[in-house]
Amino acid sequence: MKNDFRSRNHPAYWAFIVHRGSGVLLALFLPLHFWALGQALHGAAALDGFLRWTEQPLVKFAETGLVLLLAAHMAGGLRLLALEFLEWREWQKTLLAAAAGVSLVAGLAFLLNLV
Amino acid sequence: MENLKVRIWRGTEQGDFQDFEVPRQESQTVLDVVTYVQRKCDSTLSYRFACRVGVCGSCAMTVNGVSRWTCRTHVSKVAADNKLEIAPLRNLPVIKDLVTDMREFFDKWARARGRFTGSTTRKDEFARVSPESKERKRVEAGIECIGCGVCYSACDVVSWNKDYLGPAALNRAWTLINDVRDTARAERLAAVAGDAGCHACHTHLACTERCPKGLSPTAGIAGLKRAVLAATLSGEI
Amino acid sequence: MNQRAQVLLWGAQRISAMVLALCVVVHLLTMIYAVRSGLSAAEILGRTQGSIAWFAFYTLFVFAVAVHAPIGLRTILSETFNWRGRGLDVLTGAIGLSLAMWGMRAVFGVFGAGAA
After folding, report:
1. Which of B124, B131, B209, C19 could form a disulfide with C64 if both were Cys (CB 3.0 to 4.6 A apart)?
2. Are C3 and B193 within 8 A, CB to CB?
3. Topology of B103-234 in CATH?
4. Which burial class, exposed, middle or buried, applies to B121 when counting CB atoms under 10 A from its CB (0-12, 13-18, 19+)?
5. Could you tell me the pLDDT band of residue A106, with boundaries at 50, 70 and 90?
6. HSE, side-chain direction, 13 A CA sphere, residue B114
7. Is B160 close to C10, i.e. CB distance below 8 A?
8. What is the dihedral of CA B33, B166, B107, B228, to 10 degrees?
């Protein structure tokens, strides 16, 4: 028999879900991102054509989501590096809060600048 | 006080929960509840216990979805609405009802080289290990494990990767790596390396969250990850 | 894959993570700065075209991610689909190689588009 959500319901497990989810989504997004920037190979006009498409509200909303994913994956990753490479005992939950804070700030800063 | 509504797993891997009503009592533990059911309701119920006071580690079960020692879990702590669901430990084959087959759990201790290997005999002097040394403090942090299997049951990596040694075996290996008298360091580091060993751990901290002794196998596993990487880079293993 | 290689993969993912953490901080700051007055090709290419510093930065960024992402995907595929062995390792390598090539195409795009 396997565990269900009642066993998994603790902060470090949510952090794992965020880290894995954001990692997979970022990996899927990367080829798209590289394709978009590769448009510059066809000249500035081609890149501008793509950038005009990104002006739509829905795309902008998705962009903010991506920034949040990136910030969350980085902050969560720094937390994991600290837990794996530094000797620790009691401060892991503080680290978790810090990771959440950093990603939220980055997302908000991007959003405020965007609109 | 109101009666407890108790659901207890019956069967092997296949089976179902059976409902029982158990009188609520002051300072009642989950083990008391299981014992009441076995003595008063259905004598065919199988479960394990020995010491009843958190020393032997044989009464671990899954209580309302969470792996625990039943003897040290008060009903008042887990059954706020007077409901209890009691199941066998996760990640282990079920023999019958609440009894699991713990062979793979202990076999993995052996695979992780959880046995001390020394170079001295009883005729030699005692080894002197300072309680203040870094190694002894690391051993201190992990040595109180009694092998109850709660961490193994709580660990998702064990569910996802059948070969994974699991938190308890790796914690044991870490205490031996830090035992300055031990002579099997390289073999032990090799035994716990890679995808089936310490490097499979995702730092979910489920073992640390659930360990009834308040140990952190995660911290020991992190130590193993570093030690194995260093030994691999230096050519020691 | 032998055990030694598994340990080195784990190490490579952590080392690349450290590099990526630095890259991502720079990337986030650049983005937040760049979107202030709307994105345009002139704005992006004005920064990157002919700049050896940005070229070096994005090259490092692409290679770090080409190491980091496939190792993570290998673990996820293995745990989710109970998949182990040579096929998984070959796929992991192919994903890494594709990311590196596809990413460098983009880097060359923003570095030298004006010349084209």
Report:
1. C19
2. yes
3. Fumarate Reductase Iron-sulfur Protein; Chain B, domain 2 (1.10.1060)
4. exposed
5. confident
6. 20
7. no
8. -160
Q: Say yes or no: B82 contacts chain C, CB-CB below 8 A.
A: no
φ and ψ at residue B74, rounded to 5 degrees: -75, 140
ipTM over 0.90: yes
Q: B with C: how many residue pairs have Cβ under 8 Å apart?
A: 34
Helix axes B167-177, B134-142, angle to 10 degrees: 160
Helix (H, G, I), strand (E, B) or coil at C63: helix
Q: Delimit the domains of chain B by residue range.
A: 4-100, 103-234
* pLDDT computed for residue C115 by the predictor: 47
Instruction: Name the residue among B167, B174, B170 with its Cα closest to residue B135.
Output: B174
pLDDT of residue C116: 43
Is the model's pLDDT at C111 over the cut of 50?
Answer: yes
Residue C102 has its nearest CB partner, among A34, A51, A85, at A34
Residues of chain A with Cβ-Cβ distance to B101 below 8 Å are none
pTM of the predicted protein model:
0.93
H/E run at residue B106: helix B103-111
- Residue pair B15/B93 in contact by the 8 Å Cβ criterion: no
CA distance C103 to C107: 6
Sign of the four-CA dihedral C14, C4, A28, C95? positive
- Whole domain around residue A67: which residue ranges? 5-114
Q: How many domains does chain A have?
A: 1
Residues of B in contact with C3 (CB under 8 A): 190, 193-195
Look up the CATH number of the domain holding residue C41.
Answer: 1.20.1300.10
CB contact under 8 A, A8 and B156: yes
Q: Report the CATH number of the B4-100 domain.
A: 3.10.20.30
